[in-house]
Amino acid sequence: DISPLEMIASSKNLGDFVDKQEYRDRIKENISSTMDEIERLKKQLDEQRREVTKILDDQKTLRGTLDQKNTEASAKLAGVNQDKAAFDAQVKEQSSQIAVLRAQQRAANAKLGGSAVAGDPAKGGYPAKWANAPQDSLVDSWGMYNRECVSYTAWKVYQSGRHMPYWGGRGNANQWPANARAAGIPVDGAPRVGDVAVSMAGYYGHVMYVEAVSGSSVYVSQYNYAVNGEYSEMWISSAGLEFIHF
Question: Which stretches in the chain have pLDDT values below 50?
Answer without folding.
Answer: none
